[in-house]
Amino acid sequence: MTQAAALAIGAQRAESPGLWTLAWRRFCRDRVGLVSFLIVVFFFGLMASSGLHLIAADWSKEVGVNYAPPTFMGPEVADGGPSAPGSHGGERTGEANPFDPLAGVLAEIRAASGAASVAEAQAPTLVLGGDRWGRDVLQKTIKGTETSMFVGLVAALLAAFLATVFGALAGYYGGWIDDFFNWFYSVFTSIPYLLLILAIAAVLNQKGTLTVILILGLTGWTGIFRLVRAEYLKHKVREYIQAADAIGASHARRMFVHILPNVSHVILVQLSLHVVLFIKSEVVLSFLGFGVGVDTVSWGSMLNEAQSELILGYWWQLAAATLAMALLVTGFSLFTDALRDALDPKLK
Amino acid sequence: MLAYVTRRRLWQTIPTLLGVVLLVFFLFTWVGGDPAYLLAGKISNPEQIENIRRQLGVDRPYYVQLWIFIQQIATGDFGESWATNEKVSAIFATRLGPSLTVLVPLLAVDTLLAIAAAMLVAYVRGSLTDRMVMIGCTVGQSISILVYIIVFQYVLAYQLGWFPVQGWGKGFAENLLKYSVLPIIVGVIVSLAPDTRLYRTFFLDEINQDYVRTARAKGMSEARVMWVHVLRNASIPIITNVMIQLPGLLAGAFLIERFFSIPGIGREVILAVERSDFPVIKAVTIYVAIATMIINLIADLLYRVVDPRVQLK
């Protein structure tokens, strides 16, 4: 090929933008989509900087008094509130109880380690209030955001990966392979989703972030699988695949190099949809106590604490976790809608 | 129709059912570990563990255990709960009633309200009302079900005292009119938003069809167009959606039942997971899966009633 011809082709290419460029342009025109995209990016930033311990690293430090109210409400007055800071301070330092058999031991422990922490000033109010131990709710919410988002993202990636491999094999090869995966699919879908998750949580009988990710990822691939399989069925008979066959591309190459980019927009939209679904599931699982471990904070475990706090009148932890989750989930849902519109202009 | 049921559906259902049995068996036998250690708890006397293993049949080869499991499913006799020694079949019999008392009215109210709301916003599509309702649904959907339950229980029951905070009575009328009302309200509010959104798209699909224009062109009233023509056609996907929700409902309102202390199947499942009570979870999983398959079959037959064009091959 001569240089001129190559240049001509280059020029032609520049004139006709690709799928992703077009999608990006359509996306930028969607104002709601852009705002939701910024929200999602913000939460990603929050997750990353919290994960790298840049912020909220010492969320477990008891920086305030017990149930410290949010700053805008001011410190609680001693007579009205059910938990006057003074009385709690008294409990904490502990007036000597003559009948306490552990008094001596406790005093020793305090003398050894507690001196520094007692000396540390405990703020009467915190930005978004404090929890039962006086931990900062703002930092807890950021840490919980990290946990919940991380679980949702990684589980969605795992589910999408499984679904893509299964869907590609089933749709591309057809025949008994297709029958097998369809059977597998119908087995998984005939057990209601939450019931299946709970059953697996029961047999695993161990908490932890990794466990939750595995449970959600290994059970959540079914919805994506069906769509990917349908796409592969559609694409495998197209002419460009015949052409790929003619130039001697292997099955694996045709499946994952030729067809996959053409169905990747479907997977991307589903991935985004499942992140939201998994975040919601993680919150429920952690709330019930089958989710993340006790030393990890997630929105679910925050809601669990908030439930008993609310009865005592301390609503801020509930509000913080709810707001953070609602903002992310709304943002992510709108972002998914915008993504779908941008990637599939025929749909309306 | 009978030929269709026996020839096609049964033919598909049996392998799936077998798959579910294998999946549950695999989960509870291999992944779940040795149940004797779970049961023995603090008494780690090897003799006792051996004894328990023999009682449960865990010491026998896998194919024998699988056969026992299949027999249990066929006879409905899953033995006793490990935690309470109550017969599993008795647990089912006593917990089903409370679950249905809450869930049947919940599903009925939710479906009717969602259809009405969806039809309304689909009719005025693109208007301010439509957009406001859709934004409201999106935001409402993004709040966790847990928050709805916690806040409603706290405000309506604990603070205002309009409903009992939790509990369950003896008589059906008392349960339905006193204890189920708040759980039903919460359940409807939680499921209304996603259902309205979904049904709106079903209605929009139909409203843009040619037959709607034809019906209007021949001077039919708007009410008749919407309620007779559009509703009938949109009801097919709606039936699918309601049917899909049914099996989930059977064990589904875990959270509602747990918060409001309703002695239903969902609460029993959570308790069983907390106590590692395998027989109960196994039984619930298998029977809910069977119920799902039966419901799917009924859904297929229902399409035929709603839409005579549907061919059952």
List the SSEs and their pairings.
The complex is a heterodimer of chains A (348) and B (313).
Chain A: H1 3-15, H2 19-29, H3 31-51, H4 85-93, H5 103-119, H6 137-173, H7 175-189, H8 193-204, H9 209-219, H10 222-235, H11 239-246, H12 251-288, H13 299-311, H14 316-343
Helix pairs in contact in A: 2-14, 3-6, 3-14, 6-7, 6-9, 6-10, 6-12, 6-13, 6-14, 8-9, 10-12, 11-12, 12-13, 12-14, 13-14
Chain B: H1 2-31, H2 35-40, H3 46-56, H4 62-75, H5 88-123, H6 128-142, H7 145-159, H8 172-179, H9 181-207, H10 210-217, H11 222-252, H12 254-259, H13 265-274, H14 278-306
Content-based structural category of chain A? mainly alpha
Give the end-to-end Cα distance of chain B, rounded to a whole number of Å. 9 Å
| Biggest beta-sheet profile of chain B | none
**Assembly status:** heterodimer
How large, in whole angstroms, is the Cα Rg of chain B? 24 Å
Proportion in β-strands of chain B:
under 5%
Order of H and E elements of chain A: HHHHHHHHHHHHHH
Unreliable sequence segments of chain A: 78-95, 114-119
Question: Number of helix segments of chain A?
Answer: 14
User: Helicity of chain B, in percent?
Assistant: over 70%
Helix fraction of chain A by DSSP (H/I, runs of at least 4):
over 70%
Calculate the mean pLDDT score of chain B and round it: 80
Count of helices of chain B? 14
Q: For the CA atoms, what is the radius of gyration of chain A? A: 27 Å
Could you list the spans of chain B in which at least 5 consecutive residues all have pLDDT below 50?
Answer: none
Number of strands of chain B: 0
What does this structure look like?
The complex is a heterodimer of chains A (348) and B (313). Chain A is an all-alpha fold and 348 residues long. Helices cover 71% and strands 0% of the residues of chain A. In chain A, helix 6 packs parallel to helix 9 (209-219) and helix 6 (137-173) packs parallel to helix 10 (222-235). Chain A starts with a helix and ends in a 5-residue tail after the last helix. The model of chain A is unreliable at 78-95 and 114-119 (pLDDT under 50). Chain B is mainly α and 313 residues long. Chain B has 14 helices and no strands. Chain B has helices spanning 2-31, 35-40, 46-56, 62-75, 88-123, 128-142, 145-159, 172-179, 181-207, 210-217, 222-252, 254-259, 265-274, 278-306. In chain B, helix 5 packs antiparallel against helix 11. The model of chain B has no long low-confidence stretch (mean pLDDT 80). At the A-B interface, helix 7, helix 8, helix 12, helix 13 and helix 14 of A face helix 1, helix 6, helix 7, helix 11 and helix 12 of B.
